[in-house]
Amino acid sequence: MVRHRVCDEGDIPVGGVRAYKAGGQTVAVFHLDDGFYSTQNDCTHLFASLHKGKMVKGGQIECPHHRTRFDIRTGKVVCWANHPPGVKLLNFLRAKKALRTYPVTVEAGQVFVEI
Ligand code: FES
């Protein structure tokens, strides 16, 4: 694992998310009320950019395309794609899959992601 500096602590307000390039990929960095977290930015359903999604209370991100919800802290699926209703027909091809998560550290006001 290699540590990558992605931003300053003040760049992401509490309740916010931003996407950054790090280690040859794009990661989402979330600022929750108990600290910073990072996951892959591509939704595991059909690859939408999660940083364009909606933050949901309790530490979840909702994908902007088909409303899959993920637990930001663990990457686990909370609710798989369900919008529009017909998207469920794809579920035999696109089974539930958790997000990869990455350790985040903050030092001297700078945020690092380990990839
Ligand atoms: S691309 Fe994210 S829910 Fe479909």
From TrEMBL:
Ranges for domain Rieske: 4-113
Keyword Metal-binding attached: yes
Keyword Iron tagged: yes
InterPro entries assigned: Rieske_2Fe-2S, Rieske_2Fe-2S_sf
Gene3D superfamilies referenced in this protein's UniProt entry, alphabetically: Rieske [2Fe-2S] iron-sulphur domain
Record SUPFAM superfamilies: ISP domain
Alphabetically ordered keywords of this record: 2Fe-2S, Iron, Iron-sulfur, Metal-binding
Pfam families, alphabetized: Rieske
Protein name according to UniProt: Non-heme iron oxygenase ferredoxin subunit
Organism: Candidatus Competibacter phosphatis
